């Protein structure tokens, strides 16, 4: 008989410090234990709730990647966003300090499910594979998101990957959190891809677009492969999503942005409502921390109907993708338009032919009422066309900075030194780690 797993769930938070912080004030609610299918599903729901934190997919992880680049501009009052906009992020920055523990909370909760679900003895647990698949997929996403911000993801042989927390914290006792050294970038990617292999093997029947479903895991595989320049894998994943996923590009962009619901273009939305709110509307419409940068307006071609989602109010340019006044707009974690652009990039990079990716780029352009690009003279011209399309199509959805890093454009576009392609490890982490265990990112050691 299987043994019942009595594993405590980390749902309520690590407080204002980080995953390696051992301060007793960060002890969590240990009342919920993993004993059956119902508790497993409750724990999984808690993972999605944690992902909705303002410091993760609730707003900041998404919008900060446009703010630090050339899509968004700070005209508000919060120091954290000012530091990001000025591209001088210190290791005391609030987003740096808070996003690290929040994302590790997601990882730790996934670890609890990964370790505990296979041991459950519950004949009524009908979605065990789905829960496991989501846990593996969400852990892969969380590790990847941490790597993109805090690890040298663009240097395959870099030693500056992540601390890979792969076991649940024993008995929910944060005095037992291990001091975990950083793995290499290659080791971190290997863990992400291993998790994705397992997620895809378990998620064969999962199609819920409000969760980490099969096609969401496949979209993550495509995105990760693109970052690794494993273009064959990226193309194969994108091909499957486009051919078999049943998703559609919406002709009417109002149906994509002026809604609080899942759409036909959605692969995975993190869902919010008027009770369980995101903060996108608060920050893009009511406040001024993430205003629309004139450089994006000027870069948008004449006649591009996506410009209809640029507005002006209260003396500032604003993005109009998050207009619901109750903050019920979802986070678009994966949608079909990105997959077309992933396939375009993979096609061109695989073949070395700048025109082999144009069909998919033109699919996105034509939806925006733009004329198709007939041909491109060089791979440099293709990269510029790709980045232009990704910049406008995915604006304020969390991609711009990462795209500039991937193509080594941060110096030319942003004027920053190479070490600022990633953010610093939070000061809190460095203070509680044993000496020599957790290395600061290069360039930040003396700042």
From TrEMBL:
<dbReference type="InterPro" id="IPR033985">
    <property type="entry name" value="SusD-like_N"/>
</dbReference>
<feature type="signal peptide">
    <location>
        <begin position="1"/>
        <end position="21"/>
    </location>
</feature>
<keyword id="KW-0732">Signal</keyword>
<comment type="similarity">
    <text>Belongs to the SusD family.</text>
</comment>
<keyword id="KW-0998">Cell outer membrane</keyword>
<keyword id="KW-0472">Membrane</keyword>
<feature type="domain" description="RagB/SusD">
    <location>
        <begin position="318"/>
        <end position="410"/>
    </location>
</feature>
<dbReference type="InterPro" id="IPR012944">
    <property type="entry name" value="SusD_RagB_dom"/>
</dbReference>
<dbReference type="InterPro" id="IPR011990">
    <property type="entry name" value="TPR-like_helical_dom_sf"/>
</dbReference>
<feature type="domain" description="SusD-like N-terminal">
    <location>
        <begin position="38"/>
        <end position="226"/>
    </location>
</feature>
<protein>
    <submittedName>
        <fullName>RagB/SusD family nutrient uptake outer membrane protein</fullName>
    </submittedName>
</protein>
<dbReference type="Pfam" id="PF14322">
    <property type="entry name" value="SusD-like_3"/>
</dbReference>
<dbReference type="Pfam" id="PF07980">
    <property type="entry name" value="SusD_RagB"/>
</dbReference>
